[in-house]
Amino acid sequence: MKKLSFLALAAVGLLFGACSSDKDVAEVTPKVWTGEGEGYLSLNIQLPTQSPSVTRAANDIYDDGLNREYLVKDAVLILFQKATADPEGDATFVSAQAIDWYDVKDDGSVGTSTDNLTNSYKAAAQIYGSVTKDELLALVCLNYTNVMSVTANHQLKIGATDIEVDNKFTKLLAATSNADFLSKSASPYFFMTNTVYSTKAGGESTSAKTFEDTDIHTLASLDKSKIKPTKAEALADPAGDIYVERGVAKATLSWDPDVAKVKPDGETALVVDAVEWYLNNLEPASYVVRNMGTDVATYFGYSSDYFNPAYNYRMVGNTGFGITSLHTSTATMYRTYWCKDPNYAEAAPTLTVLTPTWSAPMVSNTGVENPQYCYENTFSVANQNYKNTTRAVLKVKLNDSETFYNVNGGNTRYKTVGDAESFAINSIVNNSDVYDAFQAKIVPGKSYNITAADFKVTFTDDATTKQHKVATIALKTEAGSNIATAITDGKLSAAPSIADFSSIIAAVNSAVVINKFEGGIMYYTARIEHFANTAAEKENPYVYNAANLAPWNVWEVAPNKPGSGSTAASYPGTNAEKNYLGRYGMVRNNWYDIEVTSFNHLGEPIDPSGSVSAGDTPDDNPQEYISVKIHVLSWAKRTQQWSF
Known about the structure:
Distance between the termini: 38 Å
Structural class: alpha+beta
Number of domains: 3
Mean pLDDT: 80
Number of strands: 34
Radius of gyration: 32 Å
Shape: elongated
CATH topology of the largest domain: Immunoglobulin-like
Largest sheet: 11 strands, mixed
Helix content: 10-25%
CATH architecture of the largest domain: Sandwich
Low-confidence stretches: 1-6, 9-37, 50-57, 102-121
Strand content: 25-35%
C-alpha cells in the first residue's frame, strides 16, 4: 500500500465561517472545535497497490510499476460540502488550497521536503472557506500545476473553466483538459486525483442484481469532528482516507525472440531481430476527474458471464482495498474499471494520429522499463471500431534484413522480384481487353495461345505505398516474336490493336498488389483491449472461462459472432452494449501490458502510423495478423495476447 499522510492546518474562523466581522463570528459557532487559535485536520492519501488473491480474470491484478511513477512535486486539497441530496454531483465547492508535505521522522520531527509517494509523509496547509453543513467532502489532486491553478481567493481554474464557491461538483466533473497529464521534465510527474470506487463488489453471484448511482463514489468523506487543537492530536486521529489514481493509462509491449517468430507459408519460422512500437490514435484531451457518466448504474450492472448473469458487475473489482466512512456507516471500497471520455458517444471523434520517428538502425523500445502513456480512451459499442480505438503500431525487422515481396497480402514470401511479377504478367495475359484484341485478329479456323512472352512489361516502385507496380505494357511484335511468327503462319491476320494500355495497367495493379518489404521490415497494429481475452479464446469460439470479465467468444456463433462489415453487424442485437461493452479501450491508472506471442502472417510494408485506414472496421475483425496477450495492472494491469 503506497501511503501519503497529509496534515491540514485549519484556521477555525475561516474553516467554519469565512467571517467578515465580529457579529458574523458570534453567529457562526464552530460545530466541533471551540478552542482558540489554530485547528488541525489530518488525512491519509493512498494509492491502492496491494496484491490480492484474484477470483476474477483481469480485474484487481495489481503491479507497482516503476519507482519514478510515484513522484510528487505539488498537491491541492479541494473541499466540498455535502448537499441535502445524496448524489455527489450536488456537493458544493468550498475552497481549494495548495498543500506541502515534509518527511516526518518516527519521533515526530520534521525532516526535509520530499517528492516520493512511496513512503508516509505529513503536510500542513491552511484551509479557507465557509462550511455550514456537518459533512465535508474532499478531492485531492497531485502534480496539479500543469492542469489547474488555485486563485488568490482559493477558487479553482481549469483552462477556461472556473470553479467558484457554491458551484456543484458536476461542474468540475465536466471539466476537460488538453494539458499534459505527465510532466516530462527532469522526472515524470503524473497528474493524480481521487479514484472512483464502488461499495458493491463485482462478480459475486450473491450480489444484489441492481446497481445504484449511490454505489459509486469519487469524493472522500471527512469527519469534521476530527479537527484538533494540536498537530499531535490530529495525526493520532485522521479525518479520513483519500485514494488517488493517475490520470493516464499506461502501455508496455514485450516479445520473446525464441517464441514470437514470423511464420510465412512453406518456410521455417523466421527470427525477429528488433521490434519498435508506439501508441497511436490517441484521445487529445481528458476529463480532469474520471467521469463515469449518467448511466453508470446501468452499465455497472452488466454481467461478466453470458450463460450465468449472476456473475454481475464486470466493471467492478471484488477485492476490497480499504474502508470508507459514508455518513453514519462504513463500507468496503472496490476498484472500478470503466468510465466515459469526452468523445465517448462521438461516431467520428478527432483523435491524435501520430507520425513517429523510427530509429535508424532499429532499436527495440520494448519491455516494462519502456512504458508509453496516454489519456484514457473509451467508447460505446456503436463506436467500437478501428478509427476510434487506441492502437499499438509495431515495426518489426527480420534478422536476415533481406528485401522480399508478397502478393495480395498473402503469406508467401518471394525473395526474387520476378516471382512476384509473374502474377501481374499472368493477369495481363488473362485480361478481357487483351483477350478481345487478340480474338479480333485470329484468322477464322485458327487458334492462338496468349502467353507472357507476348508482352514487354516494366515495373516501378511506389515509394509511398511500397508497392511494386506495372509501369508500362507493350506487345512484342518484332521479328521472331510469337506474334510475328503467328502472322507468318497465318494464325493472326495482324498484330492485335491495343490503342491504350492505361486501363489494362490500372486493372492489373488493382487485381495484383505486389508489396515490397525493404530490408525485411514489416508493420503491424494491435488495438488495445480493455477486458482482454486469451489467444485461445480468440481462435476458438467454444473456449469457456467462467471468470472472464466480458462474455467473449464462447456463445458467439452465427448470427451473434462478430465478423467483418459494419459495427452494427459485428455487434448485433438489442443487448449489444450489455454483451460487448468494454472489450476495447483504455482507462486511466490501468496498465496494458501487450505480449506478442507470435507473428502468424507477413505484416504490412508501410508504416500505418500516419493514418487510420478501414476506420469503420469493427474492432473484432476476424482476420488477425498478430497474436498478443494483454495483461491489464495498481496500476491495474491488463495482459493482452496478440498473434500476428
